Amino acid sequence: MSTNRMLGVDVGTRRVGVAASDPLGLMAMPVETIEVRNVRQGAVRLAELVAHYEAAIVVVGWPLDMKGREGIAVGRVRSFLEGFERALRATGGQVEVVRWDERLTTSAAERSLIKADVSRQRRKEAVDQIAACHILQGYMDRLRIEAERG
């Protein structure tokens, strides 16, 4: 069964947060945090998640600075994406990769977890997934607004 599922990805220095959309592409839900010991290992795990969720689109947080320019973390994200594309090709998978402005997503995720009274330890474990949810939800909301405008 083919779906229109999407994955949202927040690439950090040590962890990659992953979120998935529901089959209708309306709501983002946290999936997992990939501990990245090396790019290849993390990229392979993301390729496995793409296959598992039958995702058609992967929305990757693109680290822009507050002036809208590519931030210093872009190199890390590019490196991860290159590894992901290699892992995907090795499995014969295909997916559209969309870059999405991730400014303030981690701080928004942190604020929402604090507001929900999540413990410091649990916040550390969940913040990357919640940031990935913010990235994916922002993209899906834009698609919905564009569709409504015609």
CATH architecture: 2-Layer Sandwich
CATH class: Alpha Beta
Q: H/E series, N to C?
A: EEEHEHEHH
Count of all domains = 1
Q: What Rg, in angstroms, do the CA atoms define?
A: 15 Å
The CATH topology is what?
Nucleotidyltransferase, domain 5
- Derived structural class: alpha/beta
Alpha-carbon distance between the termini? 28 Å
Strands in their spatial order, largest beta sheet: 3-2-1-4-5
Strand content: 15-25%
Count the beta strands.
5
Overall mean pLDDT: 86
Q: What's the story with the biggest beta sheet?
A: 5 strands, mixed
Low-confidence stretches: none
Helix content: 40-55%
Shape, per Cα inertia axes: globular
Task: Please give a handful of descriptors for the protein shown.
cytoplasm; YqgF; 150 residues; nuclease activity; single chain; hydrolase activity, acting on ester bonds; 49% helix; Nucleotidyltransferase, domain 5; ribosome biogenesis
Describe the model.
Helix 1 (39-53) packs across helix 2 and helix 3 (105-115) packs across helix 4 (120-149). The relative contact order is 0.22. This protein has a five-stranded mixed sheet, sandwiched between helices. It has helices spanning 39-53, 74-91, 105-115, 120-149; strands spanning 6-11, 15-21, 28-35, 57-62, 96-101. Helix 2 links the parallel strand 4 and strand 5. It has a single domain (6-149), classed as YqgF/RNase H-like domain (Nucleotidyltransferase, domain 5, 2-Layer Sandwich). The model has no long low-confidence stretch (mean pLDDT 86). The protein has four helices and five strands, in the order E-E-E-H-E-H-E-H-H. The protein is an alpha/beta fold.
